[in-house]
From TrEMBL:
One of its GO terms (biological process) is cellulose catabolic process. This is Beta-glucosidase. GO terms for cellular component: cytosol. It is an enzyme of class 3 (hydrolase). PROSITE patterns: GLYCOSYL_HYDROL_F1_1, GLYCOSYL_HYDROL_F1_2. It catalyses: Hydrolysis of terminal, non-reducing beta-D-glucosyl residues with release of beta-D-glucose. GO terms for molecular function: beta-glucosidase activity. The active site is at E169, E354.
């Protein structure tokens, strides 16, 4: 039975929506910008399900003022976006492209004028192609490249951005880009993957140090977390669940919060697992101000020895509701995940930096898009977030994924997550029912 009791979030709880540069901006090479590895990857034959690329996307690079007006119409208090590294540094390092900085200054000025708090992510997967060609995140120097880039942004944009995130979901870069080859750069290497993960976290730590030197506001790390369940009570499935949990949920957080990697990773990677310097592990513990958690679903796992690490596979649940991504709708997993972070990692301040769902939305009709399933998804997860607060989790805010229908990476444009529908043939925006629902949640600071 749907819980209809009203709930209210704490005063000052921050309500926002999120996007990322390559998914919404378009104009990837405009005004002196250099190509990213996602520009390169999306133009490879058969890389993207519908042959889509980020060449146009939501045309946000040119329509940002219209989109800020939409954010204002929704009553957003904050907007989470990412900066395209190769707009700022076309070769990834060295020469700065002033026009790239100017775009983000214009966007930030519009947001601040609208009373919307910017939350900027330094890296949301789109690495400059020039750096990819020098080994990308597999090159130990990548951490320094990132720190130099971060320093430029803190110096040039720092007075306009109160909330920064170093990386978005390093796990996806490793798993999708280096283990399974379905994201840029399309590698499948048990030898590269652990080093890529390590260099990403070294980059995060050096970025935080750069921020401490001359940043303003707060800085955090954004990770994707997905609670793991066992498909049966048998020992093999329990072990598979534990490996999957270590592989997705603990790998990066243990690294930066505990200064060590789960033992299960060395076991599952075997001779491919490196020996990491103790000095590196000490660096990873560089303290940061908040944790961004992206939550979408849970997975139920069974043993799959034939699969690459974590040697597990997810099992579809009879009778459960699934989104267009094949992700089970499981709001209680959000409460469980937030409690787990609180208990394991010392009660850090947390923002839910992404939560949302892809459903097959109807085309706009008379200025309306009926998306009841997304309304119920958001309602259920907001209740789960509120329950976590009631249980003592230090949850500071929530960002819906996504403001706009956009480029869903290797799946192209068919999977739509937006609170606002984008007709990609006309670039017309239409606020969906879920957008109006979210507007009312923000206005009430609750349900
Ligand atoms: C593994 O799923 C992640 O939690 C996740 C889901 N999502 C993400 N990460 C990314 O941060 C976004 O760019 C995606 O568009 C979004 C929707 O797929």
């Amino acid at each position: 039975m749907t819980d209809s009791s009203s709930i209210r979030f704490p005063d000052g709880f921050l309500w926002g929506a999120a996007t990322s540069a390559y998914q919404v901006e378009g104009s990837p090479l405009a005004d002196g910008a250099g190509p990213s590895n996602w520009h390169h990857f999306s133009h490879q034959p058969d890389a993207i399900a519908d042959g889509g690329t980020g060449d146009v996307a939501c045309d946000h690079y040119r329509r940002y003022e219209e989109d800020v007006a939409l954010m204002r119409q929704l009553g957003l208090q904050a907007y989470r976006f990412s900066v395209s590294w190769s707009r700022i540094l076309p070769e990834g390092r060295g020469r700065i492209n002033p026009a790239g900085l100017d775009f983000y200054r214009r966007l930030l000025d519009r947001l601040l004028e609208a009373g919307i708090q910017p939350c900027a992510t330094l890296f949301h997967w789109d690495l400059p192609q020039a750096l990819q060609e020098q080994g990308g995140w597999a090159n130990r120097d990548s951490a320094n490249w990132f720190a130099d880039y971060a320093h430029i942004l803190f110096r040039e944009l720092g007075d306009k951005v109160p909330l920064w995130a170093t990386l978005n979901e390093p796990w996806v870069v490793v798993n999708d880009g280096y283990m399974h080859g379905v994201h840029a750069p399309g590698h499948r290497s048990l030898d590269e993957a652990p080093w890529v993960a390590h260099n990403l976290l070294r980059a995060h730590a050096l970025g935080v140090q750069a921020f401490r030197a001359d940043g303003q506001g707060q800085i955090g790390l954004v990770v994707n977390l997905e609670p793991k369940y066992a498909a049966s009570v048998g020992p093999d499935d329990a072990a598979a669940m534990s490996r999957a949990h270590a592989y997705m949920n603990r790998w990066f957080l243990d690294g930066v919060m505990l200064g060590s990697y789960p033992d299960e990773l060395a076991e599952m990677f075997g001779q491919h697992w490196p020996r990491f310097d103790l000095a590196d592990m000490a660096l990873l513990l560089e303290p940061f101000d908040f944790l961004g958690i992206n939550y979408y679903t849970r997975s139920v796992n069974r043993d799959a020895p034939q699969n690459p690490p974590p040697h597990a596979e997810s099992v579809r649940q009879e009778g459960a509701e699934y989104t267009e991504m094949g992700w089970e709708v499981f709001p209680e997993g959000l409460t469980r995940t937030l409690q787990w972070v609180k208990q394991r990692y010392g009660d850090p301040p947390i923002y839910i930096t992404e939560n949302g769902a892809a459903f097959a939305d109807p085309p706009a009709h008379n200025g309306r898009v009926a998306d009841p399933r997304r309304v119920e998804y958001l309602r259920g997860h907001l209740r789960a977030a509120h329950e976590a607060i009631r249980l003592g989790v230090n949850l500071k805010g929530y960002f819906a994924w996504s403001l706009l229908d956009n480029f869903e990476w290797s799946l192209g444009y068919a999977k739509t997550f937006g609170l606002v529908q984008v007709d990609f043939s006309s670039q017309r925006r239409t606020i969906k029912d879920s957008g109006y629902f979210y507007r009312d949640v923000i206005a009430r600071n609750g349900l």
